[in-house]
Request: fold
Amino acid sequence: YNITTDLLGKLIEIENIVCIKWSSPSMFEFKKGFRLYRDRVSFIDNSASPLLTSFLGARGFISHEANFWPEHELELYSRIEAGEYTEAQAMIDKLNWPFYNFRVKIGSRKGGESHVIKAAMDLAGLAGGPTRPPTRPLGDEEREELREILQKADLPALARQD
Reply:
């Protein structure tokens, strides 16, 4: 559902609303929402662009990568908060964008995202668990492609398994 900036303005009038997980298909509306309401409510980025949205006033971000490598995402957040933008972007380029692109590619064939996250957790030595129908697990070639992405990103848990 696309929440317009007008609806966003009405939602933040509700007394208990103190934070919004925000994204918009329109970059203009996305920036407009931050500009209009960032002084009245905290924003959490839901656009896979934590560095950009930090400049707009976001206070945090949603991360699929935290499911299998929380230390990476905590460091990314710390670097953004410290103003270490070049280092933060390098981290995003090394893990977050390749993982995002893989999720989108697999999602276009199989739907959803959970099967990719579960496979990444398994590869990190965590219990990702089985996928639920109608989602299908990754095939052997897809799993190997994911392993290569995580290996290039230097996922420490992956190195301990090899």
In short: The radius of gyration is 17 Å. Helices lie at 5-11, 27-37, 50-56, 70-81, 85-110, 114-123, 140-152, 156-161.
